[in-house]
Amino acid sequence: MPLSDVAIRKAKPTNKAQRLFDGGGLYLEVSPKGGKWWRYKYRILGKEKRLSLGTYPDVSLAAARELHADARKLVAVGVDPSAHRKATKIAGMERAANSFETVAREWFAKKSPKLVKGYSEKVLARLEGDLFPVLGKLPVSEITAPEVLRAMRRIEDRGAYETAHRVLQTCGQVFRYAIASGRATADPTIALRGALTPATGTHHAAITAPEPFGGLLRALDGYDGSLITKHALRLAPLVFVRPGELRHAEWAEFDLEAKVWCIPAAKMKMRDDHIVPLSRQALAIIEELHELTGGGKYLFPSTRSPRRPMSNNTLNAALRRLGYDKDAHTAHGFRASARTLLDEVLHFRPDYIEHQLAHTVRDPNGRAYNRTAHLPERHKMMQGWADYLDVLREGQSDTVVPIRKRAHR
């Protein structure tokens, strides 16, 4: 006679295990300790076996009957349901081990030590925020170009066209790693070349005309927020390094007697050591700053913890407070300002400028110059640049005399 919920609830444990049969090999085993287990007794290839279907009441009578019916169908076609369950579990584990998220995190773990800290944080944030929600659980070998495009469209829908291009590049790197590690055979991002909306506009807005740049310098001097932030704002145009390099500046990297800031390769985008000659004006700011933060690790520590550098949004937020929004000028924009004015107004040699921007510059034989290339000339250029900024700050841009003639390049 088939079981009922009432009969199951009334079943009490005895000193021996009890079996309450429902029919077709399905029964409920009541242990002496009171546990109630669903079992399915079947024969496969002439051998009697049992399959556990869960415990009551977690698995109800109706649910047990459904599981039993599925298992009987397998037996009917000669498939052992116990072996099938193990194979399914293994397949699920392999699927999880080869999911896009698992492979991407493995790729990131190997890649991140070679990335600048601030940049590596951005890469991880893009993976977690833009890719994992859409592609994370999918087997990396089964992801198609339309599925990748769907993830990119979600980014474009919020107007982040430049980000979409960058995320697609990261996505391609993950797929190429999956191919190299034997977990995929193709990179679906290749089929998406030209499929994204072109990124338009200037990514890092910058003031590049002398007179308004002088106005910006005066605004920086008048900043009335945090003194540490004010020093960072004033130093930024003098050294024109990337914002992340400035934020992560450490006192141990500065040789004030030699008038240089030596940034280690681990912090540089191009993964090469970089030397920043320090002008008199830059040294004066650094010496003032030493009284505030010289006892710690960072020149510009976080307000929350001196063991961490200031937030990556601090300088841009300060610029917005001064009235310069993201379309007018950004912290990264100081690099474009310096590059333009050093070339077009002060007429310094382009290779000196590119060296100081930490861009790769090659000699006539195609070899990259080392970090000390043209260092004396770069010292002169950085001092000339600082003197020029003093002139602009005073509102005398029309009286500037080029420091070098183009004919002398």
From TrEMBL:
User: Does the keyword section mention GTP-binding?
Assistant: no
The chain positions of domain Core-binding (CB) read 98-179
MF (Gene Ontology): DNA binding
Name the InterPro entries on file.
CB, DNA_brk_join_enz, Integrase-like_cat_sf, Integrase_catalytic, Integrase_DNA-bd_sf, Integrase_DNA_bind_dom, Integrase_recombinase_N, Phage_int_M
The organism's place on the tree of life at top rank: Bacteria
Q: Keywords assigned by UniProt?
A: DNA integration, DNA recombination, DNA-binding
Query: Matching SUPFAM superfamilies, A to Z?
Result: DNA breaking-rejoining enzymes
Q: Which region is the signal sequence?
A: none
Against PROSITE patterns, the record matches this protein to: CB, TYR_RECOMBINASE
Keyword 4Fe-4S tagged: no
Q: Which residues form the Tyr recombinase domain?
A: 203-387
One biological-process term from Gene Ontology?
A: DNA integration
Which Pfam families does the UniProt entry name for this protein? Arm-DNA-bind_3, Phage_int_M, Phage_integrase
Q: Which family does it belong to?
A: Belongs to the 'phage' integrase family.
> What protein is this chain from?
DUF4102 domain-containing protein
Q: From which source organism is this entry? A: Luteimonas marina
Its lineage reads: Bacteria, Pseudomonadati, Pseudomonadota, Gammaproteobacteria, Lysobacterales
